[in-house]
Amino acid sequence: MSLKLYYDLLSQPSRALYIYLQVCKIPFEKCPVALRKGEHLSEEFKKDISRFQKVPVIKDGGFTLAESIAILRYLSREKQFSNEWYPKDSKLQAQVDEYLEWQHNNIRTFGTLYFRTKWIQPLLTGEPPNAKKVATYEKHLAECLSSMEELFLKDKPFIAGDKATAADIWAACEIEQPRITGFDPVAGRPVLSKWLNTVRKTFSPYYEEAHLILNKLVAKANAETK
Amino acid sequence: MSLKLYYDLLSQPSRALYIYLQVCKIPFEKCPVALRKGEHLSEEFKKDISRFQKVPVIKDGGFTLAESIAILRYLSREKQFSNEWYPKDSKLQAQVDEYLEWQHNNIRTFGTLYFRTKWIQPLLTGEPPNAKKVATYEKHLAECLSSMEELFLKDKPFIAGDKATAADIWAACEIEQPRITGFDPVAGRPVLSKWLNTVRKTFSPYYEEAHLILNKLVAKANAETK
């Protein structure tokens, strides 16, 4: 098999690509990378897999590519499959792209900062999280979630219109992440809540498979706060 | 003319698109938006131009699109022009995309945070900048500039190889921005310095035209620090 995906299911864009490849029926070899063990930080990983030292990364024959959204677009050109999830129609594709580009400095940035500060740093240091920073990032994260409803889901069931696309997969994988800390991204947001449930169902069973570890951590967080 | 570009030449992605449209000889109507006057924040702008209330935005007939990189890709499909700046070759295009996606949470994020904290906030509030924050963002910005050299320019003259592409335009426009504060992004970075000069020449005279106001502000900042 020529296509290899290097991923960790606790990385949002890794999960998105993992789901995408499967719903598109693109054959690939699973190459898990344990971020928690720092496997991506080794000199070997840098030399043999990716100079970026991050996941996801693909190797397609001799071609290496990082950045999940660049990978999504490359696969849409290179692999033979139905394009219903990354539409060929130019305007529709542009709307998917508009979301995917918007996401970086919104839900991706603030979801990640919140998650790192509240969950990863305490795990690494054994110290309680910086409450002031957590509160600041939570405020920004909440604004991003409201923007998602307001800018993308106000008058249509999916981000790019009447049909689910890759934009919904990438968005949902970001939104699931802070749940690991006990945060509920859809509380008080009926539009987002309805959309998230529909996305989960649309990409079943791959969606659940990709979120299996995450959902165990969520259950643990929820049990601890009870 | 059916294509309208809404832009402010003090916005990095606005400059990138402004240059790109001109080097590609795509006819467009110039619709400047004065961010400093808050023109993008009006209810009119939100209703008639873009719900995102940011620039750049295009209107192509009845179709509105935000996010400069989504716009770049849309134009590459929709408009008839030579594609040398956004290559049709799939692997080359993937490398351009890899940079454009990487950029968001690196040079774009930290260049913007540095610029806002050191220049925009003092301008708006009349207060001196928060020195601790400026120092933190400057450190991150410096790391991003080193990463640009290390990850993208170590063994090739341009980001995607031997030829300049849209990735170089977008990158250069980001790197120019903090110069307004008196910061020199290429000091002690011979690789980046050589590359930036080549990009400026490659996209002349449109590059200079797009950076005219910026360069006046840079001259002012440099005169003040002497």
UniProtKB/TrEMBL annotation, chains A, B:
Domain GST C-terminal per the UniProt entry, residue ranges: 89-226
Domain GST N-terminal: 1-83
Record's keyword annotation contains Transport: no
A Pfam family matched in the record: GST_N
Major location category of this protein: cytoplasm
Record InterPro entries: Glutathione-S-Trfase_C-like, Glutathione-S-Trfase_C_sf, Glutathione_S-Trfase, Glutathione_S-Trfase_N, GST_C, GST_C_Theta, GST_N_Theta, GST_Theta
Keywords: Cytoplasm, Transferase
Alphabetized GO MF terms: glutathione transferase activity
Protein name: Glutathione transferase
Organism for this UniProt entry: Ignelater luminosus (Cucubano)
